[in-house]
Specification:
- The chain is α/β, with parallel strands linked by helices.
- It has two domains: 2-125 and 196-305, Malonyl-Coenzyme A Acyl Carrier Protein, domain 2 (3-Layer(aba) Sandwich), CATH 3.40.366.10; 126-186, Alpha-Beta Plaits (2-Layer Sandwich).
- It contains 14 helices and ten strands.
- It has helices at residues 26-37, 41-46, 50-54, 56-75, 80-83, 93-100, 106-126, 139-148, 168-176, 199-209, 233-242, 250-260, 273-281, 296-305; strands spanning 2-6, 86-89, 129-136, 152-158, 161-167, 182-186, 221-222, 229-230, 264-267, 286-289.
- A four-stranded parallel β-sheet has the order 2-1-9-10, sandwiched between helices. It has a four-stranded antiparallel β-sheet with strand order 4-5-3-6. A two-stranded antiparallel ribbon has the order 7-8.
- Helix 4 (56-75) runs antiparallel to helix 7 (106-126).
- It starts with a strand and ends in a 6-residue tail after the last helix.
Length: 311
């Protein structure tokens, strides 16, 4: 069984969409979405520099668009429910996963993420905040250390990685006073996502969600909240709203993939982060990361060799 996953903010790199525009129909698709949400996805995905696409209001729509474009190329017109065993996304990647699961159309996902990204950017502008990955160390000792510094374990990613989020001063203290046997790596994000600092964005996202009529997922959708499979479209939408200020439990998502019988995982563009975590969190599971269209053949091979759960 193959699970298709979508990465979160920080995975984007300058020009990463350029090779995908060479595929038939992709440029037109991106321009259509750009017009719908008032953001030039082609420009930001091909010409913008690292600082421009670090902007939360830009990065989030760009990531959802790239996830959906690469997923469509992988499935080559096939229905996700007929080809996949499950789907999930890390943080903003959950919107792409929800669209792939049939909860709402791709354009609706782009409209929602446009509102989400702008609201989170506004929330992040109130106080200088950010995130740093803590690599290694004992998980309980790491979380206790973060609590002592007033930081939040915003992402529990498994594989020995916990992401701390908080103010610039708190993160500076973490860099100076690292947990025992751990390394600290600042992340290229513009706010303390999945913490109380994002509460103002929750209300905006909740209002945007009232304009959506969700459908129940057509394949298992694994939620960031506690790694459970959610089979109600209304519940998926509710969680997409509340997850903005709640920690991401990717470690528990990977546990669920294993329980579902996953033997393969493909990470859509810009792939690499989640397949890297799977090397430690899902030993024995074959992986493929979509970075450019050159990676499609290997991913399609995995897809052909893996049947959805129950077949």
């Amino acid at each position: 069984m193959l699970v298709l996953v979508a990465p979160g903010q920080g995975a984007q790199k300058p020009g990463f969409l350029s090779p995908w525009l060479e595929l038939p129909g992709v440029a037109d698709r991106l321009r259509q979405w750009s017009d719908a949400i008032g953001l030039d996805l082609v420009h930001y995905g091909t010409e913008a520099d690292a600082e421009e696409i670090r902007d939360t209001a830009v990065a989030q729509p760009l990531l959802v668009a790239s996830a959906l474009i690469s997923a469509e190329a992988l499935l080559d017109g096939g229905a996700p429910a007929e080809r996949l065993g499950a789907t999930a996304g890390h943080s903003v990647g959950e919107l792409a996963a929800a669209a792939l699961a049939g909860v709402f159309p791709a354009e609706t996902a782009l409209r929602l993420v446009r509102r989400r990204g702008a609201a989170m950017a506004d929330a992040a502008a109130v106080t200088e905040t950010g995130m740093s990955a803590v690599l290694g160390g004992d998980p309980e000792e790491v979380t206790a250390h973060l609590d002592k510094l007033g930081l939040t374990p915003a992402n529990r990613n498994g594989g020995g990685q916990i992401v701390a989020a908080g103010t610039a001063e708190q993160l500076a203290a973490l860099a100076e006073e690292k947990p025992e046997k751990a390394r600290v790596m600042p992340l290229k994000v513009a706010g303390a996502f999945h913490t109380q600092h994002m509460e103002p964005a929750v209300a905006t996202m909740a209002q945007a969600a009232t304009e959506v009529e969700p459908l129940d997922p057509t394949l298992p959708y694994v939620s960031n909240l506690e790694g459970s499979v959610v089979d109600s479209g209304e519940e998926v939408l509710r969680r997409l709203v509340n997850q903005i200020s709640a920690p991401v439990r990717w470690d528990l998502c990977m546990e669920t993939f294993a329980e579902l019988g996953a033997d393969a995982m493909v990470e859509v563009c810009p792939g690499g982060t989640l397949t890297g975590l799977a090397k430690r969190g899902l030993p024995g599971v074959r992986t493929a990361a979509l970075k450019t269209p050159d990676d499609l053949d290997a991913a399609r091979q995995l897809l052909a060799e893996s049947a959805p759960s129950g077949e």
